[in-house]
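Observation: inputs received (chain + S-adenosylmethionine).
Thought: call the complex predictor directly.
Action: predict_structure
Action Input:
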Amino acid sequence: MSEWFGTWFDSEYYHLLYKDRNYAEAEAFMAKLSDYLKPTKDQLVLDLACGKGRHSIQLNKLGVTVDGCDYSLNSINYAKKYENATLHFYTHDMRHPLPKRYAIILNLFTSFGYFDTDEEHFKTLQNIFNGLLPNGIFILDFMNVDVITKNLVSRETQTKEGIEFHIKREVDDNTIVKHIAFESEQEQWHYYKEKVAVLDYAKLTQMMKEIGFTIQDTFGDYMLHPFNINTSQRLILVLKK
Ligand SMILES: C[S@@+](CC[C@H](N)C(=O)[O-])C[C@H]1O[C@@H](n2cnc3c(N)ncnc32)[C@H](O)[C@@H]1O
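Observation:
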């Protein structure tokens, strides 16, 4: 758990900083996505790197059978409160093979690109490919790095529930790095960083093809409008095994 993604995402402060990326956003996205994918009752869907399960919970409310898994024990413990006969959560490191086979695997809200090497990213995608049933679908919701790197806000302060988060962003060694510093109620200073590899459309689609995926669709936002490399904030790939 000593890697940055093991500590930061497991901390209460990550959830505080991102608290506005909430259930309402997840609800609208899942309504669109389930309408598009039309999963049947007997199909099992995995929300890989589900965090506290906001997408899993919303999708399950729409009648879909869902597993959610994540590296963060605190997030999974929280999500488990929402479990029912067709919704389950477990801890899992996506760098390792999946324990089950799924009809559909989702990886949402930039839950990819965290590792130090392209080999680890490639291995993770292979684990996803192997975790799919024949003809299975993988949805990767990543940032469109072409737009994001051009419009990077280098410094900003965001206040959430009385805590001032001082944020600095930079592109370093083909990685988007977000430095996050803040003082907690206990008057103690904290410092975390988020690192996401600059994986652009060309590189990601090349990796997917090498693994054996077919690209079925490419969307540019949560309302599933078509992807435009120059304007879209998101890069949402629909990949078929
Ligand atoms: C940006 S958050 C998104 C969480 C969730 N998908 C959402 O939209 O709320 C990224 C998630 O990836 C998880 N994560 C990071 N590294 C992981 C790994 N190696 N295996 C599985 N999950 C991981 C984090 O714990 C975190 O919950």
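Thought: report the result.
Final Answer: The chain is about 30% helix and 35% strand. Helices lie at 4-7, 12-17, 23-37, 54-61, 73-79, 118-130, 145-150, 201-211.
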